[in-house]
Design goal:
By secondary structure, this protein is an alpha+beta fold. It contains seven helices and ten strands.
C-alpha cells in the first residue's frame, strides 16, 4: 500500500517597509500558498536599479502555476530564476552598471520543504521552541567567520559585513544553494531581508514567532525594526503549517 499524502493548513503573510533612512524600497516579496512558493528578494544596495532586479525575480516567479510534484515545483522555480538572471544581466549591460538582487525562497509540497537562496536574505524555521537558520549567508563576513579569521564580536562592527558574495544577476549562471527537509505540524518559517536581522536578534525573532500569528508577527517585527532606526528596507514573510493529517512520501525533492 502506497504512503498517503501529508496535508497541512497554511497560514501566511508578507509585509515590507522602506525603513526610515532610504527613500526607495528595493525589496520585493511573493506569497503564493496555492503554489507552495514564498519569496523575498532584496535589490542590491549601493547599485543602480536594485529594485529592477528584485522586481524581475518576483515577476518571473509570479507565473509559477500549479506544480504536479516537488521536483516539478523546484524545476519551475529554478527555470524562472534563470530567466530573471538573464534579464537582469541584459539590463546591466544595457545600462552599463551593476544590477543584482538576493533571493530567499521557501518551496513547500506534500509535507516537505526546500529552501533556495543566494545572498544574505535569510530563511528561518521555528520548530517548537527552537529557531534554526536554514539558509547560510553568502557574505564576505560569513566566509571569514567560517575560516576562523573573524570572531562574532569583531563581525558586529566589521566595515564590510554587508558585502554579499552571491546575487541573482551577478553571474551568467544563478549561484543558488538549496536545503530541504520535512515539515512538521506547527512549523513556522520566516523569510526576511537583512533589514530585519540588522536590528532584531534571533532570540527576539523566535519569541515573536512563537507568540503571534503570521500577520501579527509580520507587523510587530517590522515595527520593532523601525523603532530601532530602520536603516535599511525591511521585508518579512511568515508561513505557518497546521494540522498535518496523513503520512508523507519520503524524499520527494529527488523522486
Amino acid at each position: 500500500m502506497a504512503p498517503m499524502r501529508h496535508v497541512f493548513e497554511v497560514d501566511s503573510c508578507g509585509k515590507s517597509h522602506a525603513g526610515l533612512v532610504r527613500e526607495l524600497n528595493e525589496d520585493r516579496y511573493l506569497v503564493k500558498p496555492e503554489s507552495g512558493l514564498f519569496v523575498v528578494a532584496d535589490g542590491m544596495g549601493g547599485h543602480d536599479a536594485g529594485e529592477v532586479a528584485s522586481t524581475s525575480i518576483v515577476e518571473h516567479l509570479q507565473s509559477i502555476g500549479m506544480p504536479s510534484s516537488a521536483p516539478d515545483l523546484r524545476a519551475r522555480v529554478e527555470d524562472r530564476v534563470v530567466l530573471a538572471n538573464r534579464e537582469i544581466r541584459q539590463l546591466s549591460k544595457k545600462n552599463g552598471s551593476t544590477i543584482g538582487s538576493t533571493l530567499a525562497a521557501l518551496l513547500a509540497f506534500e509535507g516537505q520543504y526546500a529552501c533556495i537562496w543566494a545572498g544574505d536574505s535569510r530563511i528561518y524555521l521555528l520548530r517548537g521552541e527552537i529557531l534554526s537558520q536554514l539558509s547560510r549567508d553568502h557574505t564576505e563576513m560569513q566566509e571569514l567567520l567560517d575560516r576562523g579569521l573573524l570572531t562574532r564580536d569583531e563581525a558586529a562592527s566589521w566595515p564590510r559585513r554587508n558585502v554579499v558574495t552571491r546575487a541573482i544577476g551577478a553571474e551568467d549562471d544563478p549561484p543558488l544553494d538549496i536545503a530541504h527537509g520535512r515539515i512538521g505540524t506547527g512549523d513556522k518559517f520566516l523569510i526576511c531581508s537583512d533589514g530585519l536581522t540588522g536590528h532584531v536578534a534571533d532570540d527576539e525573532i523566535a519569541a515573536e514567532l512563537a507568540a503571534k500569528s503570521p500577520e501579527e508577527c509580520c507587523g510587530s517585527l517590522i515595527d520593532l525594526t523601525l523603532s530601532r532606526g530602520g536603516t535599511d528596507n525591511v521585508t518579512v514573510v511568515i508561513v505557518e503549517f497546521r494540522e498535518a493529517t496523513t503520512q508523507l512520501k519520503p524524499d520527494l525533492w529527488n523522486s
